[in-house]
């Protein structure tokens, strides 16, 4: 049988963009399909109204979120989440692969351990850090998480003055701060004060567009279709999918293409929807369930002086001292890191009380934010559903244990700011917001048992031998760091498996 392509990949983020590069570089004919456009409007790069309020670069679908219509903060352009993320690429802890060590009380026995270990992914973390040119601090400063044994390929710039002050405050609080590792080329980075949620004006950020997709399209056999919807996979009575139906969102042209393998990387929301539309609901009943995104806490500290956050890049510091819990609080938490305030409009929109523009401008110059990650527990009732009318619904509520840990993290982050000399600090926990669903994982988890998992260890559907999923949906739990590097590393692993086993 002849095929149009060796592989058709749906979604261009950390998973899809990475595996596209792997397969195309190996000489395979690959088609990469992206629902959104290639974003190239330079006027919008640093326009807060267009990027964060109007959400021009985000997924444009209206989702029923806990019963109401909403547009989620999920990237909707070529490059997926990597096109808009803050660039922090960190390895998880080896203990993240054994959640039963921390959540024995809350998880069924089959979820206590991943079907692979940290050591299985370690060489692929090395490859991903090189591929995305990660710049980072000395690994010895980063306790409790996996680190690059030979250091990071790139170097980070010196700390800004406010972060030197914050670093001292963290040390005074008994913590070990480090410079966050970034997939950013700091030799050309413009040090914009805005980064997450905004498209990089000179592509210093290591998105898949910059690091994998365009290179593979130029040098290898990768073809790209943007603004194209993958409607469903074509199936028959065999164990193989025989085609995929695509619709150009601009011209409405419909085409059905064939490939040896079909790889979904449309996100923990998008991939299960495509499988549901295709009738591939499998036997475990877990497809679309266990939707997770980090809970955690966010605390803003007000300093007496202008800290430079309105004018330059000050997202630099993190710590992992509380990652595995402490004697004071023996419960697993995650990474804490500084994050920028995107701008005046976002500050006004998220401040506890209405504030005029003049006050927002004053605060923007003097406020710094730290967020602490708390991984939310997988719960079957947190799920994606597809209505008969094609409407997507998301149901999600954080577990009480997630909220409990987030409240503690909020308290600790306020103490850090006090040590750093802030005038005051105010905070919130992640359970107050169900729109900013970044770090989404869990809806197509992998495992050894087809009765409790959607994918096998190779991230292949248990009941369809030529369908793979390589986005964050494969994860049984949410990790204590952003999942981006783990998704990219796993995509490299799955790409190697495909090539070694000759399935492509």
What does this structure look like?
- The protein has a six-stranded antiparallel beta sheet. The protein has a five-stranded parallel beta sheet with strand order 6-2-1-10-18.
- With 504 residues, it is an alpha/beta fold.
- It is built from eleven helices and 18 strands.
- Helix 1 packs parallel to helix 6 (208-219), helix 4 (118-131) packs across helix 11 (484-501) and helix 5 packs across helix 10 (400-419).
- The two termini are 14 Å apart.
Secondary-structure element series? EHEHEEHHHEHEEEEEHEEEHHEEEHEEH
User: Which consecutive residue ranges, at least 5 long each, have pLDDT under 50?
Assistant: none
Strand sequence of the main sheet, in spatial order?
5-12-13-14-11-17
What is the first-to-last residue Cα distance? 14 Å
The major beta sheet can be summarized as: 6 strands, antiparallel
Features:
single chain, 504 residues, alpha/beta, 6-stranded antiparallel beta sheet, 11 helices, globular
Topology of this protein?
Elements: E1 5-10, H1 16-25, E2 30-33, H2 48-53, E3 63-65, E4 68-70, H3 100-103, H4 118-131, H5 161-172, E5 178-179, H6 208-219, E6 222-225, E7 228-235, E8 241-248, E9 254-257, E10 259-264, H7 267-277, E11 297-302, E12 317-319, E13 336-339, H8 344-350, H9 357-366, E14 367-372, E15 383-386, E16 392-395, H10 400-419, E17 424-429, E18 467-469, H11 484-501
Parallel strand pairs: 1-2, 1-10, 2-6, 3-16, 10-18
Antiparallel strand pairs: 3-4, 5-12, 7-8, 8-9, 11-14, 11-17, 12-13, 13-14, 15-16
Helix pairs in contact: 1-6, 1-11, 4-11, 5-10, 8-9
């Amino acid at each position: 049988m002849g095929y149009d392509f060796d592989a058709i990949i749906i979604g261009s983020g950390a998973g899809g963009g990475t595996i596209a590069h792997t397969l195309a570089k190996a000489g395979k004919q690959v088609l990469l399909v992206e629902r959104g456009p290639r974003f190239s409007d330079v006027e919008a790069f640093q326009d807060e109204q267009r990027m964060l309020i109007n959400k021009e670069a985000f997924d444009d679908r209206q989702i029923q979120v806990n019963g109401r219509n909403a547009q989620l903060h999920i990237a909707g352009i070529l490059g997926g989440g990597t096109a808009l993320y803050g660039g922090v690429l960190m390895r998880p802890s080896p203990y993240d692969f054994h959640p039963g060590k921390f959540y024995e009380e809350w998880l069924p026995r089959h979820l206590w351990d991943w079907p692979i270990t940290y050591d299985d992914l370690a060489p692929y973390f090395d490859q991903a850090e090189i591929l995305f040119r990660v710049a980072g601090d000395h690994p010895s400063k980063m306790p409790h998480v996996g680190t690059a044994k030979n250091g990071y390929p790139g170097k980070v710039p010196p700390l800004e003055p406010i972060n030197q002050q914050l670093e001292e405050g963290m040390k005074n609080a008994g913590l070990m701060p480090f410079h966050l590792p970034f997939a950013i080329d700091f030799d050309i980075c413009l040090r914009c004060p805005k980064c997450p949620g905004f498209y990089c004006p000179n592509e210093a950020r290591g998105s898949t567009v910059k690091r994998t997709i365009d290179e593979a399209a130029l040098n290898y056999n990768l073809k790209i279709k943007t603004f194209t919807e993958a409607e469903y996979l074509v199936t028959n009575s065999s164990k193989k999918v025989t085609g995929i139906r695509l619709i150009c969102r601009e011209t409405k042209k419909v085409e059905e293409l064939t490939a040896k393998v079909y790889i979904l990387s449309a996100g923990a929301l998008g991939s299960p929807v495509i499988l549901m539309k295709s009738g591939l609901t499998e036997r475990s009943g877990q497809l679309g369930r266990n939707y997770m995104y980090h809970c955690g806490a966010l605390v803003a500290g007000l300093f007496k002086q202008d800290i430079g956050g309105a004018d330059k890049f000050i997202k630099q510091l993190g710590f992992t001292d509380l990652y595995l819990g402490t004697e004071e609080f023996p419960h697993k938490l995650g990474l804490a890191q500084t994050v920028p305030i995107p701008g005046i409009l976002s500050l006004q929109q998220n401040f506890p009380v209405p504030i005029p523009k003049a006050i927002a401008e004053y605060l923007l110059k003097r406020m710094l934010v730290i967020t602490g990650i708390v991984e939310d527990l997988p719960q079957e009732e947190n799920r994606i559903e597809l209505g008969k009318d094609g409407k997507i619904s998301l149901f999600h509520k954080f577990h009480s244990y997630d909220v409990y840990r987030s409240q503690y993290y909020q308290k600790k982050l306020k103490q850090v700011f006090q040590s750093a000399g802030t005038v005051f600090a105010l905070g919130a926990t992640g359970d107050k917001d169900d729109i900013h669903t970044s770090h989404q994982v869990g809806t197509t988890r992998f495992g050894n048992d087809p009765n409790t998992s959607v994918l096998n260890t190779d991230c292949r559907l248990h009941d369809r031998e030529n369908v793979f999923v390589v986005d964050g949906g494969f994860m049984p739990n949410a990790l204590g760091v952003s999942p981006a590097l783990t998704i990219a590393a796993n995509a490299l692993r799955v790409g190697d498996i495909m090539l070694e086993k000759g399935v492509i």
